[in-house]
Fold this sequence. Notes:
Layout: E1 5-10, H1 17-22, E2 25-28, E3 31-34, E4 37-40, H2 47-57, E5 62-64, H3 68-79, E6 85-90, H4 98-106, E7 112-116, H5 122-136, H6 141-151, E8 155-160, H7 165-169, H8 175-184, E9 186-191, E10 198-204, H9 207-218, E11 225-234, H10 239-251, E12 257-262, H11 265-271, E13 276-282
Parallel strand pairs: 1-2, 1-6, 6-7, 11-12
Antiparallel strand pairs: 3-4, 3-5, 8-9, 8-13, 9-10, 11-13
Helix pairs in contact: 3-4, 5-6, 9-10
Amino acid sequence: MQKPVLLSTDSPAELPADLMQTHQIKTIPLYVNIAGRSLRDGIDITPPEIFHTYEQEKIVPTTSAIPVGEYQEHFAALTDGGKNAVVHFTIGGQISACYQNAVIAAQEFPGVFVVDSQSMSVGITLQLLHLAKKRAEGLDAAALAAEAEQWRGRVRTTALLGSVTYMRRSGRCSAVSAMGANLLGIRPVLGMPGGKLTALKKLRGKPIQVQKQYLEDALANPENIEPEIAFLYHSGVSPEEFLTAKALVEGKGIFAEVRSGFAGCITCTHCGDKCLIFMYATKDTAVY
């Protein structure tokens, strides 16, 4: 008899609470390190606290992967002595040690399958939603993990940075590049083709103009976009800017649903404030 399959993910998936409950998806938090404290993402610290600390003390926190031991505890609870199988999605393996640690932990649990999402933020959520549908069709854990690895390349994971200050301070871009970008008012667009964090292009102009260009570029090929759902998140852009951005996406009439929300602690730590995040699935391999 096929075991029940539980879906699980790292906290940077930023999975909305209603979808988490509807699809019974479990999460495990990464850590945010700040002022000598190690805090659980979304539990012990929130994005506003991260930005307040930077504004007041010029301290940008760092993040830590989930330790092997905590993954083992998480998988033990979910498998419940072998009663359940588990498919767990980690944040992209090229930007975090979570995938490596989860794979090590899963070696003790034959029914646990670990998938490198090759993504971040709600790009992981898109993969979870796809797998939830496939689970409902009756696929077992092994087949679901194989489907996930085949399908993940269809998620278009991008973010428009407000500045490169946080990314420089967190060690993900050089000080020279950061200085040049900030002085010139350049706003990079990041993507994750093949799971590698990449600067796709650099935009320049007033915030609303740059955000419009970013979204127009993303939606330039609507025939290759899966229309079911898109996620438009941010890390503190102004209400006017965000309403304008959301109206642009919804006005295209491509998506049946456009979900919006505030980015989580891990995304905010590395991408900083005033970042706009737009992610959706494509009908073929995502083109960046």
